Amino acid sequence: MKKLLVATRNKGKAQEIKNLIGDFFDDVLTLLDFAENIHIIEDGKTFEENALKKAKSIYGLYRLPTLADDSGLEVDALGGRPGVYSARYAGDNATDEERIKKLLEELKDVPYEKRDAQFVCVLVFIDENGRVYQTKGVCRGKIGFEPRGENGFGYDPIFIPEGYSVTFAELETDEKNRISHRARAFEKLKMILGEIYNEDTGTERHPWNYL
Ligand SMILES: O=c1[nH]c(=O)c2ncn([C@@H]3O[C@H](COP(=O)(O)OP(=O)(O)OP(=O)(O)O)[C@@H](O)[C@H]3O)c2[nH]1
Ligand SMILES: [Mg+2]
């Protein structure tokens, strides 16, 4: 029975990760399944630092294969903000609605052609031997003028991915999971997992950093 621990307390993210991880593990647990309230302080300046800290903290406690996802929304007109502060953008206990409201307020005078943004996802995976692997995925798009759609989580109702006229929250779950920043980071992670866990494929090993 091969277990994966996912170092997240975010329900929307946890669900997407379960959809995206494939069949490398028999059981995928997140911190939401744990009775203890494990809290990791995300004080890194980059997604990479925070993802590594989350993965190392949980691996250090259980020594099982562990995955962490640090992600966020970078808005060009705001010089990349909220970025690593996406979760805390409107204060520690704010809701998704409050974060969206604050962002739309900050962008109220910015015209559509200047509302470019990107979602970024960095994954750090630590295998049962303590080896660390990192991948990254980016999805570019625009910030809309009002929230639209019910699917997804977080900033999804205001993010319109490139090549689309609807928001992430208006897309079917499967469609978001084909094109999102997280989907792109998972494509690369799954190549690595394939090499770690299906060693008999006879293929050349790739460099471990798939950034
Ligand atoms: O609309 C969205 N669609 C996405 O696909 C997405 N991915 C990330 N985010 C937002 O970016 C922050 C991540 O912060 P984050 O990586 O620290 O996660 P978190 O604190 O929510 O949970 P944890 O994994 O740290 O426990 C949070 O505000 C998320 O809402 C998204 N928003
Ligand atoms: Mg967090």
Automatic annotation (TrEMBL):
Record: residues binding Mg(2+): 70
Sequence positions that bind substrate: 8-13, 71, 153-156, 176, 181-182
The record's free-text note on cofactor binding: Binds 1 Mg(2+) ion per subunit.
InterPro entries, sorted: dITP/XTP_pyrophosphatase, ITPase-like_fam, RdgB/HAM1
Enzyme class: hydrolase
Cofactor(s) this protein requires: Mg(2+)
Gene3D superfamilies per the UniProt record, alphabetical: 3.90.950.10
Active site (catalytic residues): 70 (proton acceptor)
A GO term, aspect molecular function: ITP diphosphatase activity
Subunit structure and binding partners: Homodimer.
Protein's recorded name: dITP/XTP pyrophosphatase
Organism annotation: Caldicellulosiruptor morganii
